[in-house]
Amino acid sequence: MASPCSPLPPLHPKGKKALSKDSVEYRLRRERNNIAVRKSRDKAKRRNLETQQKALEYMAENERLRAEYDQLRQERDTLLGILRQTPEAANMLKGIGDFA
Q: What string of DSSP letters covers the chain?
């Protein structure tokens, strides 16, 4: 009994046919691929720029909010200082704890 010969694996992935680099079809595929790659890279660059812009906006907003927080905290401290000068309010503030 003769042993069966195993078939050779295909040279190209399944569903792909070999194209000559000189063929019109090959050139058309390459051109379409080049356009798709360019489009994809441009889209990635746009997304990157948009992300950088958002990061700058968030950093500016964060800085504004920190300044507002500092100003409100200073205002609170001033008002607490005024309240501490009033005997009735000073006694109330002692019971609160966090503000005293």
A: -PPPPPPPPPSS-TT-----TTSHHHHHHHHHHHHHHHHHHHHHHHHHHHHHHHHHHHHHHHHHHHHHHHHHHHHHHHHHHHHHTSHHHHHHHHHH-S--
What are 33-47's pLDDT values in tens digits?
999 999 999 999 999
Residue linked to tokens 């040279």: 11
Residues 19, 51: Cα–Cα separation, whole Å: 41
Mean of the pLDDT values across residues 54-80? Answer: 97
Q: How many CB atoms lie within 10 A of CB 37?
A: 10
